[in-house]
Design goal:
alpha+beta, elongated, 8 strands, single chain, three-stranded antiparallel sheet, 39% helix, five-stranded antiparallel sheet
């Protein structure tokens, strides 16, 4: 209740000589307004106070919190491997699908160079893709292999967009597709 908040604010002022609070008030029209109220005791019978309407700031903060929650939910519930890395090759943010696909915890991956997980035969192609990204060229359908925590390799297909020194990527595990393609190619070549 805003009246209770105001009374508590003034009680603090009387007891300690200083009070600073954000207080919510409801206008007669029903509109809610937020105020920062700061007061200081100057002498036994003199006080100074300052009030600032912070309603827009509070609304902006609430909207930002809602958007942040929405983006976090989207990022963490994607079926694709989502990644934010930098052009130096370090993982900065990953969604939980990485744990499912590669078997490492996010803590084991974050802050590490992604080249540490790339199959040795794919390092040169990956370095070339990184050079393209550093030149601000987007990458589509780039495929390389990443080491799973059990030592096997998973085929990963990438789509990456560089923005300045950050790389925003979505990737998919295409290991099963590659096995089918390889089996079909082997069958065709053996005819």
């Amino acid at each position: 209740d805003s009246m209770d908040d105001a009374i508590a604010h003034f009680q603090t002022l009387l007891e300690t000589g200083f009070s600073a609070n954000d207080i919510q008030f409801q206008k007669k029209t029903g509109e809610i307004r937020w105020w920062t109220v700061i007061a200081k005791k100057l002498s036994e019978d003199r006080y100074i106070g300052f009030c600032d309407d912070i309603t827009e700031r509070k609304q902006d903060a609430e909207q930002l919190a809602a958007k942040t929650k929405e983006l976090k939910l989207y990022f963490n519930s994607s079926l694709d491997m989502l990644c934010i890395s930098n052009t130096d090759g370090f993982f900065l943010r990953l969604n939980p699908v990485w744990e499912e696909i590669l078997g490492y915890s996010l803590d084991e991956l974050l802050g590490r160079r992604f080249l540490d997980f790339v199959h040795p035969e794919d390092v040169d192609a990956t370095l070339q893709a990184m050079a393209n990204l550093e030149s601000q060229e987007k990458i589509q359908n780039f495929v390389n292999r990443y080491r799973h925590s059990n030592g096997t390799y998973r085929w990963i297909e990438w789509r990456s967009l560089p923005i300045e020194s950050l790389i925003y990527s979505a990737a998919r595990d295409i290991t099963d597709r590659k096995k089918i393609e390889d089996a079909l190619e082997h069958e065709l070549n053996s005819r």
